[in-house]
Design goal:
The complex is a heterotrimer of chains A (52), B (267) and C (437). Chain B contains seven helices and twelve strands. Chain B is of the alpha+beta class and 267 residues long. Chain B has a single domain, classed as Alpha-Beta Plaits (2-Layer Sandwich). In chain B, the strands form five sheets. A four-stranded mixed beta sheet of chain B has the order 8-1-12-11. Chain B is globular. Chain C is an all-alpha fold. Chain C has one domain: Formate dehydrogenase/DMSO reductase fold (Up-down Bundle), CATH 1.20.1630. Chain C contains 17 helices and two strands. Chain C starts with 14 loop residues before the first helix and ends in a 29-residue tail after the last helix. The chains are: A mainly alpha (52), B alpha+beta (267), C mainly alpha (437). Chains in contact: A-C, B-C. At the B-C interface, α2, α3 and β6 of B face α6 and α7 of C.
Chain lengths: 52, 267, 437
Amino acid sequence: MFPFNFEWIWDMSHLVFMGGLWFALTVLGMGMTYCIIKAAVDTAEGKGGGHH
Amino acid sequence: MKHEQAKKYGMVIDLDKCTGCGACMVACMAENNIPFKKDETNKLDSITWMRVYQLTNGKPFPNTDICYIPRPCMHCEGDHGHSPCVSVCPATATDYSLKTGIVSQIYTRCFGCRYCMAACPYHARYFNWWDPVWPDGMEKYLNPDVSPRMRGVVEKCSFCFHRYQLAMNKAFLEGRRELEEAQYQTACAQACPAGAIVFGDLNNTKHRVHRIVQPDPAHGGRPKNPKAFRLLERLGTNPKVYYLSSREWVRRLADHYLPNETPGKGH
Amino acid sequence: MDDALIPKGVKRCPLPEFLMKLGPVVALLLWGVVAMFMCWIKGLNQTNMNDSYGFALWIWADLTVIALGGGAFFTGLLRYIIGKDKLKEILNFAVLIGFICYSSALLILAIDIGQPLRGWFIFWHANVHSMLTEVAFCLTCYFGVLTIEYLPLVLENRQIDRVPFFHNLSHNMHEIMPVFAATGAFLSFFHQGSLGGVAGVLFARPFAYREGIFIWPWTFFLFTWSAAAYGPCFTIMLAKITEKITGKRLVKDDVYALLAKIAGWMMATYVVAKIVDTWYWATVTAPSKGQTLMDFYSNNPFYGIWILILEIGVGGVIPAAILITRKGRRTPFLLVTAVVLGVVGVCVNRWAMVLQVMAVPVLPFEGWPMYYPSWQEVATTLLPVAYGILLVAFSYRYLPVFPQEPELNPIVTEAREPAESEATGGAGDAEMKPAEA
């Protein structure tokens, strides 16, 4: 999973497979981070209040 | 390292000599600390790294003929080490060694998904459905060179790999780099009273296995000896266990053939 | 009692009645939990699996729920990427079903492995050449995507939505949902496919083995394709069941028709591909291994050629034929028949690709081993069903799962405007008496 695992080899299979995995995880992680930070900022700015 | 130049341990089992006595199975169980249950009648969940099957030609008396076929792990080479089980293991818990040709099983890494068992057409892989328990006192007789396996992992014949390690250690201490045929033998080969099992390096022209089967590297190790064959050869598993039989019905039962095909004619 | 939690504009039965009706489901859940702990504590000897059936009921259930849960990724893809906006009316439900299916699959896998505490080895010591590794990675990541897709719905609960932060979070997640949906589609393509690859790469099992492109056997593409075709059928089927149980119309017919039409064409093309694959396998692949088609379907008490007919004919050709015709998908009886047959078809396909792979003898001198599951296996397989029913029930009660529900079921006591002509449902609600808002 990581380059420091002893079965890791710097070959095409690992680059493609793990590249795809880490790309997907990065997109998800950054997407959620953006949502949470923006929600915190929006809340601080007073948005989203006054519902119901 | 090119596998053609390295060691490639394999086995030849002469079915004309095998009497079906089961000594190989017993020797294997004892040598490798194979756990057993109180009731071993259900062969679908008991562990037998080496298992002797009984074959029959299916003809009525007096033409009935039977043959016993011992079945260890075939240590398939597949296509350049792409054996059926090694390539599917998700946790790299089984490996094909290009130094010895032995398919290993790392018990402490296996997490018991059993995909390798699904991949193996020989049923050579066994799952530990139970905790290994030995009768009182018997644990003193366990082989100290072989680790017992825990519940929930897969195990299989290792060609007595611990014996290879011991032999290589001894060889290094004595300043040798090569093993003589007799210096590394499996427990089943030594136990067979009929001398039906021969074990050695298929790449070494001095070893009997090489001389008997005359493997053809140009054709995936297919034997040149017309009496020799391998189980399910046409599946592309490229096994390193060869069998000898003078009976055609036995050779035919080693593989699947369409009604119009004849064994040994190539397919 | 819990009126404050129930979405605006809809009616729900009183809480005690709701809880009482779930009693049997909770009992089923507890039965499954007991069996699950028995398997974890005593080991897999609690099952009827054996060395010939290393994969059995659980792996079938796993493959099946993942195929059926494919409705989530495909509906999301259609809505966010292809732009079929109308499907937003059923997307929440598809996501909910997907979430249940995938969490169930992960739970079953956690019970199925011999050393559950070592389950993380599949990630840590990953063998990138194994189809199962790809399954594990993509499945886990996609479960994350489904959680992300389900979360905004939870945040839309009336009380949670009052908290400004959660309201903003939900809003922001909706904004970038296409990114998550695209990632989900990417991950789904690979894990649905690699689940097909699990059987397809077994070159020493002629029943399972298929040729393919590069490292992917044909089953890789067939599985992804079939998940996209049959997943929406499952979504429609469960939505129809939910309508039946609640006695309300929850989704408009044109939404069903659109999803059914797309699923129908996916299914029709899939069935053609599956027939071609089966033909090639029966005439070229299997004979090259020394076996004929009927070797796989005879000389045993269970696995007959009827399986192939049931899978491809009854569960493929017939539902596809119904769904690609306008009249078929617009006729409620035919629509329900088609989606049910489709679900049966995909279940049979996954059964064959797991159980029959194990059953077909490969050594010429061996017979067909037969298998029936132990009660522990049955109970742990029903456990996710019970959990799914509970999650659907609670989500339906407290979250705005069906956006069209208020419109289709106007609350008369609130003296609203007369509903549109379509809002005729809600009659015959003998069991679920609406609570006063």
